[in-house]
Amino acid sequence: MASLSIFYFNIALFKWPVAISIAAFVLFELALNAGPNLTTFIIPSLVFPLDIKAEGAGYAAFFGKLGAVIAVFCFPILMKLGGVSLALATSVAVLGLGAFLTYYYAKKLGLEK
């Protein structure tokens, strides 16, 4: 997630050509989809008890849908106010907030080693 934030920030700040941006994003997606399947789907099912997995899946589904609804209404406003740069900067800020909250709550609940 942090690398996607950096990618968006570089596009917004440095105004990369479209071909380079698309090629970099395709490479990023290929790398992202090549590895997380084991850590995303298999390991949690072996490590966490059923009640924690169910609660986590519920929260993830709720916040994913809530974020999608908010983004649908906010992106046109951001595009009118500041264009692509403001929209991407806002995306970076939201992704950074998500990373911070994940780190904070993982540490608070003792899930970090």
End-to-end Cα distance, whole Å, is 20 Å
Rounded Rg = 17 Å
Are there runs of 5+ residues with pLDDT below 50, and where? none
Number of strands: 0
Approximate helicity band: over 70%
**Based on helices, strands and strand pairing, what is the structural class?**
mainly alpha
What can be said about the biggest beta sheet?
none
Bin the strand percentage.
under 5%
Mean pLDDT: 78
Order of helices and strands: HHHH
Overall spatial form? globular
Total helices: the number is: 4
Would you write up a description of this structure?
The protein is mainly α and 113 residues long. It contains 4 helices and no strands. It has helices spanning 2-14, 18-34, 36-47, 50-108. Helix 1 (2-14) packs antiparallel against helix 2 and helix 1 (2-14) crosses helix 4.
